[in-house]
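Q: I'm teaching a short session on how sequence maps to structure, and I want students to see two examples side by side rather than one. Could you give me a first protein with its sequence written out and its structure tokens following it? Keep the formatting plain so it prints cleanly on a handout.
A: Of course. Example one:
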Amino acid sequence: MLPIVILQRLSLRDYPGRLCAKVVVPGCNFRCRYCDNREIIFDYLEKEWIHERDVLNHLYRVKGYLTGLCIGGGEPTLHNGILLFASKVKSLGYKVKLDTNGTRPRRIRKMMEEKVLDYIAMDIKAPLDRYPQVVNHKVDIKAVEESIKLLRRGGIDYEFRTTVVPGIIEARDLEEIAKLLVGSKRYVIQQFRPEKNLYPEYSEIELYSRSELEGFRALVSPYFADCRIMY
């Protein structure tokens, strides 16, 4: 069974072009200092989990009003139950979106082969040579690169996205990432959220302004078919 700690019954922003529900799966293999999901990274074993049947029952009741489910985290692909859970959601007629850091390409490939995914959003944390510094953990960079290739060649809808944190991700970093992903379908520049961060000092960081974010988009948009900002 897939561990689920949050069921968001309606989301207007987690699945582009669809009204969706969202489940949050605990646990992560990164320790990004600015992560805003601190409560599901460390102490989730003591949290009360939501049973899969409760999620499926909700989806059954709202079928036709909602058309998608987003599986986020944490890092959902760490858990063996994700494939079966996604297949159950698909059997109800829903589109399934996965949020992932891309460190489990074999599991992503399997889910793509089993046709239980319709959309993948992969976080690109930093230029590849800065990954260990930014995620504060050892990283298999080849796995990240393999997942990038899977999305670009996999035949399902996808996006890459980067959270911009002042002092960690700057314009030159975004340009390096854009060169890595050049020609990709969609890239999202995501505003950092200073709340419940893994390292409390990040709650006091002054965010990039809207004009600065627009400047980032202008810088990297020539590399992509579609480049967006998520506030």
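Q: Perfect. Now a second example for contrast.
A: Example two:
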Amino acid sequence: MKIEKIPLGPLGTNCYLVMKGQEAMIIDPGGDADKLNAYLKEADLKPIAILLTHAHFDHIGAVEELRDMYQIPVYVHKAESDWLSNPNLNGSALFRMEPISAAPADSFISSGEMSVGSFVFNILETPGHSPGGVAFVFSEEKWVVSGDSLFQRGIGRTDLPGGDFEVLVETIKSKLFSLPDDYTVYPGHGPETSIGDEKLHNQFVG
């Protein structure tokens, strides 16, 4: 299995392609559908699903176009089931930008083991940045795609709808920091890090 980071959208959100053979799962397509589509075609990849760590506008900007283009399902946590279609909840209405919306998700994500096609991975519910935040854990590869909960030397903002600083810190300590130190963290923004490094150096999670 391989993973590729492609920054997309107005905030350069990290979209990830998790690939096995010629199949790929798309995680958090924040915008620039044409750019992502060009990459998929050049690499001869077949997308089979769109997975969302959460439904803020900068993570969902290309959802509708890609879903229509490839006829693939979209997965999000049930706590944010109505965020895709609601610019006030997904945050796009709060900024000076064209409101972003998409049709509702096709399926819901919950904690525990999840399989999509031949991909098998685990879900950690990681609220705090948003109520339905999740992380995707690939145990064999020692990866975690953390969304906007944990960054290199930082954490997600908690001043948007449904954010809660105390909940986020507890989420990181009890869920993400329960993973082994050698797990690579692939965050929603910025460079990769590791669980061990963040335990030692992340000043927000003392």
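Q: What should students look for in example two?
A: Point them to this: The chain has a mean pLDDT of 96. Also worth mentioning: The chain is about 20% helix and 30% strand.
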